[in-house]
Amino acid sequence: MFQKIIRGCVKLVQKYLPEPFIFAIILTLVAMIVAMPVCHQTPLEVINNWGNGVWSLLAFAMQMALVLVCGSALAAAPVIKKGIGKLASKPKTPAGSIALVTLISAIACWLNWGFGLIVGVIFAKEIARKLKGVDYRLLIASAYSGFVVWHAGLSGSIPLTMATPGAGLKEITRGAVENPVPISETVLNPYNLIMVAITIMALVLVNALMHPKGEHVVCVDASLLAEDPEPEKTLSKTPAEKMENSPLLSWIIALLGLSYLIIKLFFKGGSFDLGAVIMLFLFVGLLLHKTPLAYVHAFGKAATGAAGILLQFPFYAGIMGIITGVGESGLCLGTIISDACISISTPKTYPLLTFFCAAILNMFVPSGGGHWAIQAPIMFTAGAAMGVEPGLTGMAISWGDAWTNLIQPFWALPALAIAKLNAKDIMGFCLIDLLVSGLIICSGLLIWA
C-alpha cells in the first residue's frame, strides 16, 4: 500500500510539475494576478514593482552560483573524491544507502546549508556509481530532503539576524523586540533541537522505506556519471606554463585566503555565513587541486551546472518585488497574507499559523532574507501583543521558510545540476517528506507554545 502511494505521488508530480523555469514564470503570473485585486494595484503598479525587484537578489544569486561551482570543484579534487568514494562503499543495500545519504545530508545542512546542499548530492552521486540496484531518483531526493532542517540550524539567516547586535532588530520589529535574541532561545532551544532530531530520524526511516521494489527501481547507467578524463600532464617549458603548473602559487594564495577566514571567524567573532562557506570551498579546492591550471579546469567543468540559478534568480527576485511592493493604495500582498494569519490566531495557535504563513510565502519568495523583510515588521509585533516569545515567533517563520522548499524546486537547482536530473524526477518523493516533516513540525510548535 505504501509503495502504491509513493508511485502515485511520483506519477502525479511527473505529470503536472513543469520544468523549474516554467514554474517560476507561472508563479510570477499568479503573484501579478492576485496582487491587482487584493492590493488594489493597477497593472502598471504591479509591473513596476516586479521590475524594481528583478535585480534585488543579484549579489545573492552570485553567491548561490559560487557555492555550487566552488563546492563541485572542491569535490572533484583527487583526495576528496577518494574519501567520498571510500565512504560511498560502506552501504551494502539500497535502503541502507538511502538512509546514510539522508542522515549525512541533514546533519550537514543543519551545520551549514550551503555545505550540506552540495555535499549530500555529491555523496549520493558517488553511491550511485558504486552500488547496483539503488534508485537514483530517490538517492538525490534523499540528499535534498535534509535541506528541510537548514533554517532551524546553525546557519539559519533569521535566527542569526535576531542574535546579531546592531542588526536593526528594534526598528524592523517596530519596537516589539528591543534586544538581540540569543540562539539559546532559537536554534539551540531544547524544543527546536528535539524537533530537528525527530525530523531527521523520520526522514531517514521514511526515505529508506520509500525505495521502490523490483521493476519500479530506476537505476542510472554508471557510465553516464563517469567523470571526464583529466588532461594529460605535460612538461612545463615556458615561464607561463611553469606559473600555470606551480603548486607554490596555489599554496600562497590559498594560505592567504584561509588565514583571513581564520582571523574573521576565530579572532574577530565573525559568523560562518554563506560568504565564509564559499571562501572555504574556493581556497581549500585550490589547495587540493595543487596547481592553478588544474583548478581552472575543475572550475570550468563545474560552472555549467550554475545555468539554472543564473536564469531563475531574477524572476524570483521579481516575485519578491510584487509581494513586497506597495502601490497608491498603501497595501502590500505580503502584509495582507500575514494579517490574515494573525486575524484567526490565539496565543496557542499563533506559532502554527505563522509557520503556515511563512510556508505559503516561501512558494513565491524562497529566501530567508525576503521572509525577514516581509514578516518581521508584522509577526513580531502581533506575537508580542499575544505574549508569544520572540524566539518562538522567529523559529516558526524559519521552519515555514524551510518546509515548503521540499516542493519548491528553486533550492533544488544546485543538487539537480550536479545530479543531472529534473525537478520532476525527485519531487514526488519530496512530497511524502513534506507531509511527514509537516506533522512533526506542527506538533512541535504546538507543544513549544
Describe the fold and architecture.
The longest helix is centred in the last third of the chain and has 26 residues. Helix content is 70%, strand content 0%. It has one domain. By secondary structure, the chain is mainly alpha-helical. The model has no long low-confidence stretch (mean pLDDT 86).
Tell me the major beta sheet. Answer: none
Roughly what fraction of the amino acids lie in strands? under 5%
Number of helices: 22
In total, the number of domains comes to 1
Instruction: Determine Rg (CA atoms, Å).
Output: 23 Å
Average pLDDT number: 86
Helix fraction bin: over 70%
**DSSP E strands, number:** 0
Draw up the topology in text.
Layout: H1 2-16, H2 20-38, H3 43-53, H4 58-75, H5 78-88, H6 94-111, H7 113-130, H8 136-145, H9 157-163, H10 169-172, H11 190-209, H12 239-244, H13 247-267, H14 274-288, H15 292-303, H16 307-324, H17 333-343, H18 350-364, H19 368-386, H20 390-403, H21 413-419, H22 423-448
Helix pairs in contact: 1-22, 2-16, 3-16, 4-7, 4-14, 4-15, 4-16, 5-7, 6-7, 6-8, 6-11, 7-8, 7-21, 8-22, 9-20, 11-22, 13-14, 17-18, 17-19, 18-19, 18-20, 19-20, 20-22
